[in-house]
TrEMBL record:
Top-rank taxon: Eukaryota
Organism, scientific name: Gossypium mustelinum
Signal peptide positions (record): 1-20
Name listed for the protein in its UniProt record: Leucine-rich repeat-containing N-terminal plant-type domain-containing protein
Membrane topology: Single-pass type I membrane protein
UniProt similarity note: Belongs to the RLP family.
UniProt keyword annotations, A-Z: Glycoprotein, Leucine-rich repeat, Membrane, Repeat, Signal, Transmembrane, Transmembrane helix
Length: 513
């Protein structure tokens, strides 16, 4: 018993000492701490001229001082084993000044991701190119929304996410670690280099809002991990090649080709391969892949509702969408688009599509927004679409649709703007009533069952009368056949007839008198 007490006392003393004695060293390496502090002295912080909308600026660098372990500074992330600084996230931090080639930031050779986006930094990337090569393990670099200038070497482009101008170089190194490449919102021009196919780990490629002029880079489909492909607001042109079927786009969840110059029809083979958009049961976790310092990467999404074009932001990690709007696609919308049951947003507006809306759209049960406006679609709105119980935005305006508007579920919440400029549509919420299917094709005499019409009710009454008569006739026939002459029935009829006849005779005699 005494030995047990002694052991407990020793353990208690050891625990007390472990909590009372300060650690002998910080996790942060001194030379990397000094490099960060020197970087802080070379830039200014001034939020007076910054506007981030509803987002407040992030004053990360206020915690940067020697009294705190640099691995605990806001916007800094370290490797828990080696103590090396591996991540810096200073987006929207009101930073200003120049980033020169001798900046101490380039001494952090172990950086895996660097985000200085949406500040007011400036400088020449041509001067800084050789220093950026020191980031051997760099996977994500975001310098968008600054004032950098100059041209970029081909080697640098294999790793960069930037806000520069010029052409995308024709050669990329074999960077198999690069997972995210964001070149959006710049003034890049020229072609998309096929050497991007060497980046086999690429999951997110955003080339939106540039001046790129090229045919569809079909070789991107060979990137089996690619989940997000955004080519919006460029000058891409031509057909989407049918040979795309030889590739898979297995993991693609966000596909945005809007605001380009694409033409031709859509191949059913394209939608056949989009497996990640088909499987609603496969709940993959993308949070770690699309998260930066605890914040998820977002993309802009354009929706037109109530005649207003609005821009929303959606978190990439849990969004599935397809946007082919504002091109020159033609022909019918393939029926197998309705197999993409994980889609949350579908936008085919402002094209030249013809034919009916596929009835298979009723299978898109996860759909929240559907825009088919400004095409040449005809026929009826499929009643199957009332199954879309998550649908919040619907725009079918500026088409040639006819017939009654379906009712039920979300369709009871949409207003006139969803159906404007379809002269053949009728029924609520439009003021035009569906009288004899005005605007629709006249029904065949043999076909009387049309949804939303008063004709079915009339025929239901008629058939009820026929049915009752048939049942009564068969019943009387059965009685006559099995029992012979129904004397009880005949006697009742004779008595009633004699009674009524005698009353009629007496009434006539009274009138004569």
């Amino acid at each position: 018993m005494g030995s047990l007490c002694l052991v407990l006392v020793v353990l208690q003393l050891s625990w007390s000492l472990s909590f009372s004695v300060p650690p002998s060293s910080h996790l942060c390496l001194p030379h990397q701490r000094d490099a960060l502090l020197h970087f802080k002295t070379t830039i200014s912080v001034d939020c007076e001229f910054f506007y981030y909308g509803d987002t407040y600026p992030k004053m990360h660098m206020e915690s940067w001082n020697k009294s705190i372990d640099c691995c605990s500074w806001e916007g800094v992330k370290c490797d828990h084993v080696t103590g090396h600084v591996i991540g810096i996230h200073l987006s929207q931090s009101c930073l200003g000044g120049s980033l020169f080639a001798n900046n101490s930031l380039f001494q952090l050779h172990n950086l895996r991701w660097l985000d200085l986006s949406y500040n007011n930094l400036e400088g020449s990337l041509l001067e800084n190119s050789s220093n950026l090569f020191h980031f051997h393990g760099l996977r994500r670099l975001n310098l968008a929304g600054n004032r950098f200038n100059g041209t970029i070497s081909s080697k640098l482009f294999s790793q960069l996410v930037n806000n520069f101008y010029g052409k995308i170089p024709n050669s990329f190194v074999n960077n198999r670690k690069l997972s995210h490449l964001l070149l959006n919102d710049n003034q890049l021009e020229g072609l998309v280099p096929p050497s991007l196919a060497n980046c086999t780990s690429l999951e997110l490629l955003n080339l939106g809002n540039n001046k790129l002029r090229d045919k569809f880079p079909h070789w991107l489909a060979s990137l089996s991990r690619l989940q997000v492909l955004i080519l919006r607001f460029n000058r891409f042109y031509g057909f989407l090649p049918h040979s795309i079927a030889s590739y898979d786009f297995l993991a693609l969840r966000i596909f945005d080709l809007s605001e380009n110059e694409f033409t031709g029809t859509l191949s059913t083979k394209l939608f056949r391969n989009l497996r990640a958009m088909k499987d609603k049961h496969k709940q993959q976790s993308y949070s770690s892949n699309f998260q930066y310092d605890g914040e998820f990467y977002e993309i802009p999404v354009n929706l037109t509702t109530k005649r207003l074009e609005l821009e929303f932001t959606k978190v990439v990690a849990n969004f599935v969408s397809m946007d082919l709007s504002n091109n020159q696609f033609c022909g019918k919308i393939p029926e197998n688009v309705g197999q993409l049951i994980s889609l949350q947003m579908l936008n085919f507006s402002h094209n030249n599509f013809i034919g009916p809306i596929p009835t298979s759209f009723g299978n898109l049960v996860a759909l929240e927004s559907l825009d088919l406006s400004s095409n040449k679609l005809n026929g009826r709105i499929p009643s199957q679409m009332t199954k879309l119980t998550f649908l919040e935005v619907l725009n079918l305006s500026n088409n040639n649709l006819v017939g009654p508007i379906p009712h039920g579920n979300q369709f009871d919440t949409f207003d006139n703007d969803s159906y404007n400029d379809n002269s053949g549509l009728c029924g609520l919420p439009l003021s035009k009533q569906c009288v004899n299917h005005v605007g629709a094709e006249p029904p065949s005499p043999l076909v009387v069952e049309h949804e939303g019409s008063v004709i079915p009710f009339f025929w239901e009454v008629v058939m009820m009368g026929y049915g009752s008569g048939v049942v009564l006739g068969l019943s009387l026939g059965y009685i006559v056949f099995t029992t012979g002459r129904p004397w009880w029935f005949i006697r009742k009829v004779e008595r009633d007839w004699q009674y009524n006849f005698s009353r009629w005779v007496r009434r006539n005699r009274v009138r004569r008198n």
